[in-house]
Amino acid sequence: MIYVSIWFDVEDYFSPESDDADKQAADLASQAGVPVTVKVVGEKARALERNGRVDVIRSLACHDIGFHSDWHSRPPTIASYLADLGWEDGANEFERREWQGLQDVERIMGRTAVCFGQPGSSWAPQIYPALRKWNIPLYLDEAPHVGLPSEQPFWFQGMLHAFNLRRNAIKMEFGSDSDFQRTCDLFEAAYFRLAQVGGGLISLYYHPQEFIYRSFQDVVNFGRGANPPVGLWRTEGHRSAVEIRMGYQHYQEMLRFMQSFEDVCFVGASQIPPLYSESTLPREWPLPLVLRLARNVQNEINFQQVGDFNLSAAEVFEVLVNWLVLHLDLPFKPSQQADRIILGPTQVVYTKHVERSVSWHQFQSGVLYAARFLGERGQIPAAVRMGNQSTSPEDFLANLGKVIQCLLEQGSLPSKLVWQVGKFTAAAYAAQDSQELWSWPIFPDGFQAHNLMHLARLQTWTIKPARLQLETEPAPKEVLERRTLKRSRN
Asked: Which of 158, 261, 336, 439, CA to CA, is 20 to 30 A from 368?
């Protein structure tokens, strides 16, 4: 099955004309019987309320509602105000600034927000504690900050992401015949690419204001960090009536085009999490799986698939630490909460490289330290204390794997450990900081956020693929060819 998620960012609070475009985008989807997701900005919802646009609100509320930040592009944007903050301060600041916007969107729309997505490329890793606190189950957007090569949904900081799907995320364009055809071609390519591997998710998005304007009105007003007072806000680049009508026609044709494909199922944001629901992790792991985890972490530290489970590096860390604590009956009782989230470190503590062998007594103290830290804070420690020295969590995990392998294969603990350096490869799933990463035209010239991507790499301890629960077998080539012929005749 190919699941198709269409979402609209409803963000233009500059022009009342864009309200009509928002309504039309929602109404045409309703008429076609296609569920979409409408991500609404707090100030946009308040503007609809002030302007008495109950008709627009009703049309949008026929579909899933998401939250798209309080003020979207008005400075300072999310990445800007979090750029220099640490983990806890950043999490608190995001909640302080954005909470009212979420409340207003849900109150005005009369619906609970089921997803969140950042404005433009204004992404930051400190936002997730608040999103989880607000019980938002899905991150739905597109940007290159974190993601997996599979170009499919993944888990990050305990939250499902339909994000950074790359070739399977399509920015729809309806401004001309060639734009429309290119959008169709991109969808068709994504469809057949996913059909060959048994299914997956295609994410398509648009901004209803683009039906009305050739340019984004937030760039007109807030480009390069500008922040004029409300009285000086303006609009420009209005399309002609013919262009607007043609854009809506292309949109309707796009919906019919996608409906013509076999095995396509349109899903709103509320329908995506059930497709990727996870089984509760077992309290006791079979010894062969424990041994596999222990062997693997000595080679690299990354997410792992064991049996029917995908485990993040953080989950692997907890499983192995708690297994050894219980197996050796050490003086600590691990948490029995099966669905709790283990985060990555929130800072780096630079530790001196362990050059000498480590005694079992020293290492055991490190196991207890790690177990207690996990139990109390629900995150990987930035450094693991072993007696009078400390080590990085990746080095500790690699050596933990060695200890457990020795115990399971030889039946005894090593008296001393020749220290091994851990290879943490999951960090590659966070982008390197660059000006291209922050090229959104709202940012001031030269804006970069090294700190944000540094924190993001620490949280790649939590990343892992999301497993599609309703998978089908890959379609044979001859079936795909028949589908192509069937669709083209239609």
From this structure: 158
